[in-house]
Amino acid sequence: MSAAGLTQAQDKMRAAGISPAAVDVFTHYYGELEAGATGLILEDSIEPLTRPDHLAGVEISDEAANEAFAKTAIIKLNGGLGTSMGMDRAKSLLPVRDGKSFLDLIVGQVLHARATTGARVPLILMNSFRTRDDSLEALAAHPDIAVAGLPLDFLQNAEPKVRVDDLTPVTWPADPTLEWCPPGHGDIYTALLGSGVLEQLLDAGFTYASASNSDNLGAVPSPRIAGWFAASGAPYAAELCPRTLADKKGGHLAIRKADGRLILRDTAQTAPEEMEYFTDEFRHPFFHTNNLWFDLEKLYAALTERGAVLGLPLIRNVKTVDPTDSSSPEVFQIETAMGAAIEVFEGATAIVVGRDRFLPVKTTNDLLLLRSDAYALADDGALRLAVEAAPLVDLDPKHFKTMQKFDERFPYGAPSLRDATSLTVKGDWTFGADVTVTGDVSLADAGSPQLVPDGSQLGGTA
Q1: What single-letter DSSP state applies at residue 169?
Q2: How many angstroms separate the Cα of 352 from the Cα of each of 55, 76, 132, 216, 286?
Q3: What is the DSSP string of 380-420?
């Protein structure tokens, strides 16, 4: 192990107030990195998971569901800034429907679940240092969301970016914040322990946690899944969905031949020459939603027994220290995936759920759909399809990728997409009010800014 590089990184983390547990975890992965670990999972080392249980076929009584739900906490991963959409604050603060943000809608989901079940249902965010202040300020508008004795959030850890050439922590005086990166959402377990929140939940009588991304409004608090998870006796479970052509990049579960355990494989863990297997929706027919359930007592036992090091598979990402400057030094960002913990727990399992539990917003294409009338806001705070199938939206990234450009071109909100099959926009188009899209619509690049007039009925090719 490069003693100098590791010592420098450890000292830097301690000086920044990073928890001892997070320093220990970083030390573990630094050793793997120096040993040449790539984190790749080869196809011949796994068997596809083809016959998981389906929630639709499970019988759970209302009594059992509510009993388990009363012991369940809701955790939302809220560290993302939405930088790919040109944002510089928490993506969860982005307006989605009727002026309400992701976070507003999540609060509504939790309050509805409390009202209908009588459960306490705490909502706890895993924030990053970049999202914490704005998110907690937004939650202050919902004073009834707090649960006595429990915090509203805990902080995701940070770790130094490590130079590719010598494995020392990078320095970047032009913007020292770029010297740091999050350890991936697999840090949730270390952060829960190091922050003390895991013990607080246990002391408050909570046994289970349901964790999901804050940009996935489909992951509504579910007494039914809580009841299934409690009845299974499993220490850990993942929600899966049937895979389609649109899900080629999503991670999937597989069975490791060496020990028969379920494991998660993401794109970054797949060798380039084996991507044909990874993207084959028939070979690997279910994708991982990143909606997870875990037993808090068993998680605490595993973390304390292992000195906070669960040993999740390494994800080695090569970046430049300044993502906007390709000439800046190359660095390793050492990451882990939250869902990879499935291989740590003997008896871990998975359940196939409806596609309505997976509605992530990664691009403005996704956001336009959720803002349109192709989706309706249900009483439980979930956005659900109001039509048989969601239309395909493909907006020109040159003119619609960032939120500023997107909002400028949809000043009156989303067009009606209820009767649309697809909407493809190439070039610079601004949409007027009360525009309706029917069937397949494609707007071509005219080489100059164009306007879709108020009240337009778009159908066919324009």
Answers
A1: B
A2: 6, 20, 33, 17, 8
A3: TS-EEESSSSPPEEEE-HHHHSSHHHHHHH-TT-PPEEEEE
How many CA atoms are closer than 13 Å to the CA of 136, on its beta-carbon side? 13
Compute the distance between CA of residue 75 and CA of residue 310 in angstroms, rounded to an integer. Answer: 19
**pLDDT tens digits, residue range 341-388?**
999 999 999 999 999 999 999 999 999 999 999 999 998 888 999 999
Question: Cα–Cα distance between 1 and 103 in angstroms, integer?
Answer: 43
Structural domain including 409 reads 364-461
Residue 138 DSSP one-character state: H
* DSSP letters for 78-126: E----GGGT-SS-GGGSEEETTEEHHHHHHHHHHHHHHHH-----EEEE
Q: Could you tell me if 280 and 341 lie in one domain? A: yes
Domain count, the chain: 2
Q: Are 34 and 1 in contact (CB under 8 A)?
A: yes
User: Same domain for 180 and 303?
Assistant: yes
- Neighbouring C-beta atoms of residue 51, cutoff 10 Å: 9
Q: pLDDT per residue over 119-170, tens digit each?
A: 999 999 999 988 999 999 999 999 999 999 999 999 999 999 999 999 999 9
How many Cβ atoms are within 10 Å of 87's Cβ, its own excluded? 16
Angle at 114 between CA 113 and CA 115, to 5 degrees: 90
Cut 0.85: pTM above it: yes
Residue type, 11: D
d(CA 409, CA 389): 25
Distance CA 460, CA 47 (A): 45
| Domain CATH code at residue 238 | 3.90.550.10
